Records
---
Amino acid sequence: MDELVTTVLGPLAPEALGITDGHNHLWIEPVASADPEAPVLNDEAAIRQELQQYRAAGGGTIVDCQPGGCGRNGRYLAQLSHDSGVHVVACTGFHLRRYYPPHPMLWQMTAEAASDLFVGELLESLYETQDTVTPVRAGFLKIAGEASFEQTPRHLLEAAAAACRATGCAIEMHTEKGLAVEAFLEFFLAQQVDPQRLVFCHVDKRPDFGFHEAIAQTGAMLEYDTFYRTKYDPETAVWPLLEKMIAAGLETQIVLATDMAYSHMWQTMGGQPGLAAFVTQIRSRLAKMELAAATVNNLTGGNIARRLAVPHKKESHS
């Protein structure tokens, strides 16, 4: 079987994804959640235009990290991908509790039922596209950890682990500034999840090289996305950390991203730096660091593409 990445418009070879922002948000519908500051991204024309700018700059793919029930809409993701020419990989899974309406379905489910839901969205269709001519499938699991393991819903962690084992699909995990990664990793290893299927997100907010080195050496991947966030001082944190990880030979364990969930980061909505800056600023800076071309390509797409790729049966044309 071929190893392919499931995009919203169908499976693709990992090398076809090109330059890939490994953790972002393209569409977030308003939700009556417990968080009054929950982000909303639903200006279709502005999002389409920004995706076209990303494509014109050389961008190939966006990995969308908004799970169902808290603002995801696979119909719009598919339409935006079709209109812009940018590949989009959608997700199933769960976000932080505060981004859901009161009494969210997932929190009432058993681990087995939640796993069945995740597997269904990975193998058949997102629930919001089940009645469409061409259903959209999720390409990975996005889950969210709270500041501690104990605060995170264990039954949903178990569900994600079971879905990962059943499908081979990767898990991207939101962390609260890199906290409790060691505990989450220990849990997933005990659940027989291959560490090669794990991506821990936002961990550059905890720029301790020893911590990053130890996690990377287990086979898990680390996602960095504070390049535009001045409060995390990227010039003294993420950029030096990235250089140390590359020097240690761990560049294949890193995925770069921008995590632009808020409209003030989108140029077409009056903000900065915009989707295209992943190419024009981050990738361009890497290209000036005297790195091997393969290293630049891996950091800005190749690494995450290989994590997202899973075996697909060849289609019969007889």
---
Amino acid sequence: MIKRYFLIIFGVLFISIFSYFFGGEYHKFYENSKELQNQNKQVESNVQNFQLSDIRTLKNTSISHTPNPQVLTYILDKIDTAQNHVLIEVYILTEKQIKESLKKAQKRGVNVQVILEKNPYKATNINNKTFDFLKKNKINVVWSKGSNYSLNHSKLLLIDNEAIISTGNLSYSTFNFNRDFFIFTKDKKIVSVLEEIFQSDFKGIKQNIYDSNLILSPNYSRNKLHLLINNAQKDIKIYFQYFKDENLEKLLLKKAGEGVKISAIISESSWKNDINDIKRLQEGGIDIVPLQKIKMHAKMILVDNKYLYIGSINFSNYSLDFNREIGLLLKNQQIITKILDIFQQDKSKNIRYD
């Protein structure tokens, strides 16, 4: 009997102490979990009902491409004239001029926040010097929370009222050697959504945020890219480093079999290393060429010269289903016209290997 009373008293004391010290944290965890569940349900509904006609024409939006050092100069000028904040979420940040501009922005009172990937694939320590440099200069920098995503492969800058979505990292090679694309937008709605995503990622909070023009991994990029490709009626133009996703490859072959003309520009390294896979796609009616002289790093899909995807998402299951990736869906005709011009130039410069 005494032992029973002792256990009851001990249990009451334990619960009281636990509630006193950890009750608030547990309640917060419970509320966050509940909120995420509600978000997931709403986003799932939005994705299921999504149609390409939902894509808005983004206001005050333009595109630039590399290799072109002037794109770096353009970005540096934006950082150097920032008055409120500079927020960066990127896979690799090694460009020295950008780091110096961030240092100067911090000194003049601009809120500078940076999210870096700690373990880039086959380049584990590449961001360490940048992380230490930013810390030394009192810049608010964090490693992306590894338990949320396999890798944080995003390429996002938010400078005052403008967002920059890129296919390329913030590195010397991006601006001087790589074929990459940079979307600059001051569209208020998309900038607001991207800021919300950034701050959640900065705090390490896993959230599911939706916008019709947004493609987000690991949340719903596969669904939207599948819908984009599957809705093609006439043609599909593609920039990707490689093809490493079986489901999307099957979908491309299906569309080619339906008579949709598909043209793809890939990297020379993939052309050499994945030749059997490429031949299989070619035999299915897909026109593929490697980009020569310029390093191919872009990620782009253009459907019927009407709907455009640009972002960090590669053609692989890890990129689609496990990484943090950010991309945009666009139907801005001026941007599409420029993409078409660049694509045709790149394709005409390449030797066909049929």
